[in-house]
Design goal:
Strand content: over 45%
Strand order of the largest sheet: 8-7-10-13-14-15
Number of strands: 26
Structural class: mainly beta
Shape: elongated
Order of helices and strands: EHEEEEHEEEEEEEEEEEEEHEEEEEEEE
């Protein structure tokens, strides 16, 4: 059936009863060729696209409520209320990204800030949830997960977009009558970056600020905001032929060579030698490509690439052993949010301290 979209105010002017509903979360339609009725709850309200395959259709609402007459029959010649999809889009994104192994490309799972939760040594049943403050003093649960007996838990919990301002979250651990947790850790981003937020059970409230800093309920900074300059640090253990190894760091957008070491420059090293701390100042809101090559496969035993901030906080972002050629793509956005990609496959993300 086709229906006619009306603004919430138009429906309220026609019937003041509609005005009691929460305008930001609902939308109003009136009868076209038909209307919603009992049994339609949850059905989609769709703006059709131009293709014949429905691939570009857009779901804007879900059937939610309407009116009944004295005989408990649907009144279909008046308005119907639909839940407004955009009012819960952040929640939808968080839940889809949390539950999907391979989420659709148009979901922002690669850019959402996230937490990593590790629970071990639990007994009985425990339930873990994260609530977000949608409006002042009003919280809504966005993530719920559970663990039983000693199975443990290691999960990524997606939050809401950073660019939409400061948000307060509450992390809750609920244990059943016999539930206990021996070890719990909650990190901002990937544990590799060691941004530990919380390591006890109970309730923990924190706020992610506009600058990426995380503060607790008392206003204490747990994880600092983004830095303005970062550094890469490369450590290499050479194989039998150090003169076969080369590496480079390139601005992935401008293709500018920031640093290049040719095989001939490594020929002075002895097998087993470790080359460390090549510090290269790099700026946020940039993408960088690091490439390392071993011409014949016997010049390199292992390598480790680190990212450091101006306080010398160090985080491992790539490592490898004997390789012919390997690339790591590193992106740092203007908020200090880091995405690391190797061979076009995303490895990890974090808000760097």
């Amino acid at each position: 059936a086709e229906v006619i979209y009306q603004t919430n105010q138009q429906c309220t002017d026609d019937d003041p009863f509609f005005g009691q509903f929460d305008f930001p979360t609902v939308m109003c339609v009136t009868r076209g060729t038909g209307n919603a009725c009992a049994g339609d709850s949850g059905g989609p309200l769709v703006i059709p696209g131009d293709s014949d395959t429905s691939s570009d259709d857009v779901v804007v609402g879900l059937s939610s409520f309407g009116l009944y007459d004295d005989d408990n029959n649907c009144v279909t010649d008046t308005w119907s209320g639909f839940a407004r999809i955009t009012s819960k889009l952040n929640w939808i994104n968080s839940v889809v990204c949390f539950h999907s192994i391979d989420p659709p490309e148009d979901f922002p799972c690669g850019t959402l800030p996230f937490l990593t939760l590790e629970v071990s040594g639990s007994s009985g049943d425990i339930t873990i949830s994260i609530d977000v403050e949608e409006s002042e003093g009003q919280f809504e649960t966005i993530i719920t997960t559970s663990a039983s007996a000693s199975d443990g838990l290691f999960e990524t919990l997606f939050l809401y977009p950073k660019e939409e301002g400061t948000r307060q979250y509450t992390f809750n651990v609920h244990a059943g009558e016999t539930g206990e947790v021996d070890d719990l850790k909650l990190w901002l981003g990937d544990p590799l970056y060691n941004n530990l937020l919380h390591d006890t059970t109970g309730t923990f409230t924190f706020t992610i600020q506009d600058d990426g800093a995380v503060v607790d309920a008392q206003g204490k900074i747990i994880v600092g905001g983004p830095e303005t300059t970062y550094y890469t640090q490369l450590e290499i253990v050479f194989g039998n032929e150090p003169g076969e190894v080369s590496w480079s760091l390139v601005d992935a957008i401008s293709n500018e060579q920031i640093f290049t070491v040719l095989p001939s420059q490594n020929a002075v090293y002895q097998p087993g030698a470790t080359l460390a701390k090549i510090d290269l100042g790099i700026q946020p809101d940039r993408s960088y490509l690091f490439e390392i090559s071993d011409a014949n496969g016997n010049g390199l035993q292992s390598y480790s690439l680190y990212l450091l901030d101006s306080n010398n906080n160090s985080s491992l972002i790539a490592k490898g052993d004997t390789v012919a050629s390997e690339e790591t793509l590193l992106n740092i956005d203007e908020s200090g949010f880091v995405t690391v990609i190797r061979s076009t496959k995303r490895l990890k993300m974090t808000s760097f301290p």
